Fold:
Amino acid sequence: MHLGLLASTARQFASFLEPCAAHPASRIPHPASRMDFLDQAVIARLSRLQLAVRTPMLGSVTGLHRSATRGASVEFAEYRKYAPGDDLKFLDWRVFARTDKYFIREFEADTNLRCYLVVDTSASMKFASADNMTRFDYARRLAATLAHLLVHQGDAVGLTAFSEKAVDLAPRNTSSHLRQLYKLLEEAKPSGEANIVQTLHDFAERMRSRALVVIISDFFAEPGELLDAFKHLRFYKHDLAVFHLLDRQEYDFDFTRPVRFVDMENGADLITDPAVIREAYREAVNDYLAAMKHGCTQFQVDYHLTYLDQSFEGVLTQFMLQRIRQSKKGGR
Structure:
């Protein structure tokens, strides 16, 4: 892993999250079959739910989501004072009769959504313990399923795949665009080092129009730097959701004999006895995760710590149900 994953007080343990023990071949997954990240049965079940946003959006056509602008609908929003040029049909004559003042009735507008799926394709995403799919395979399943659901509810979805460089696919809502997005996910190969902090700052400057931004990564960087990047995205009023992917072994650190650990991105290695460092390692990881969760709550980032042994259908179901509840409570 990157040295930045853990707090500086535990930096000496930071190379332990990407183990490559005496038998590394046992941790290398079999090549994925074509489009095996698409599960039509899961998509059919999840299609009964709407993928909602927590804040109003700025779209181009009528859709399912609350707009940041006023428009025509059956749901009353608020009154505002009449201004020359306003359409007289929206004057509230009952209010005029009571106050002798002119007020315009405004209504909620509904619009479509732009969503950007930001997927980490750095070398560390190849990691998986013996019983799990790789982090990248899990990320592809999440991204592909969300893309399908969004396009089929009339929303535009784009993709940014990043490691040392970022590859962007602009948001569209057509079937041909969806196939292009699938192809990009299929052809992506985890490799290289990712500067996720700089990537997210660059993304925030490129994509300023408010949108739903879903980031899927292992987030191997200092929490403070990551949270600054999240804050940058929130500054432009993006509705930000993150899926933090961890293998259970990375958290449990249940190795029972001396192991050689290898950083999958830069090749640095370390041989150590896990029993000697286990307690300090777990404390550092818990501090790191607590900092991420607290910071995301502070900046209103929708944070999901996701282990690779969890059902991705269950993770998405919980994500979508939670967003439906939040969208009903949200204001402008």
About this structure: Strands lie at 65-81, 103-111, 114-120, 156-162, 166-172, 212-217, 239-246, 259-262, 269-272, 302-307. The two ends are 40 Å apart (CA to CA). Residues 70-111 form one domain. The chain has two domains: 3-58+112-329, 70-111.
